[in-house]
Amino acid sequence: MKTEKNRPYRLMTPGPVPLSPIVREILGQPMIHHRTPEFEKVLKSVGQKLKKTFLTSQPVFMHASTGTGAMQSALTNTLNPGDKVLAIVSGKFGERWAKMSEIIGCQVSVMNVEWGSAVKVEDVAEFLKKNPDTRAVLCQACETSTATQHPIEALGKLISEYKETLFIVDAITGLGAMPLPMDEWHLDVVISGSQKAFQLPTGLSFIALSAKAWNINKNVKKPDFYFDLRLEKKAIEKGETHFSSVVPLVRALDSVLDGLVDDRLEKAIKRSQLLAQVTRDAGQLLKCPAFSKSPASSVTALMVPEGVDGQALRDLMESKYYVTVMGGQDQLKGKILRIGHLGYITNDDMCATFGVLSLALIELGFNPPLDPEKIMVFVRKALGNSEVPF
Ligand SMILES: *Cc1c(COP(=O)(O)O)cnc(C)c1O
Hints:
By secondary structure, the chain is of the alpha/beta class. 40% of the residues lie in helices and 14% in strands.
């Protein structure tokens, strides 16, 4: 993908996300060593704030990995080969849970959910009643491939009634964009990643275990060498990470987290919810209605009008207008556009995205009900006084 110098490039994807000017400045600072009193202070501050973002009393750990590393850490720190798990599969990331848990030797039951729909809590309840020896239920808070949100609070309540069953939640595009209070909702393992609502480049992942999960962690016979949370716990008590820390990302995280704690967490979530609502409404006005029956607040999937090639549409938006959105995968290839609204997304970014979408539709021979100017006016008005909160 080519970018001309000084031409605004709009990254409207569900990770990676645009960086704020403050984050870019911090990332450019001179390097320091990670075993220094100076960095120890940053780590301590980040550790305290992460707990307030996860809303847990438990420590939150960082791995130097993409989000998938935290998925692996979640499994290898709580499960043994032969353990029975239930993987809720409603898209590509659910498939990843199923594949990963199979590779570590679990007995995996897959609950297939129609793409674009949320899992039914009754179905999980029925499964657990029949299979009370299930060791973990694996789910996404938001299934990014279909932009669909699952009923995490209700699932947490249900699973908490089973003393030996953990609820493992991939909140990589959930945390910071939808309410997910870990302790209050009985979530046993919560993971996230830096390049989503944490507004940073890719390269850090986050994980926290509930008291119940820590108890079960004692029975893990073969922890992963790299992702061993027992070692990370010892390191954190000494003010360190077990392996080298990603100093620039952690320093930038310390700043970003100021916008994701206390009342600012709520504000950030509200902003995501507003962007999602405006995206659905503007899409509807362009004859691109929302695809999901349980739409997420971090990313929105819009259906591409009949007769328009979705792949050509996203390619045109990117190559000619420098707006990057994602298409659909597998069965949804060419049928949906996925517009991410996480990170440093300004009102201008939102207006431009829909102006460009309208323009690109026209260029591909489709006549949207609103021309570029009109849809931009709509988006501007719908966003009102709200601005990016950090
Ligand atoms: C982005 C994402 C991941 C992790 O992907 P990485 O490329 O490994 O960072 C996992 N689950 C969901 C739901 C995601 O959106």
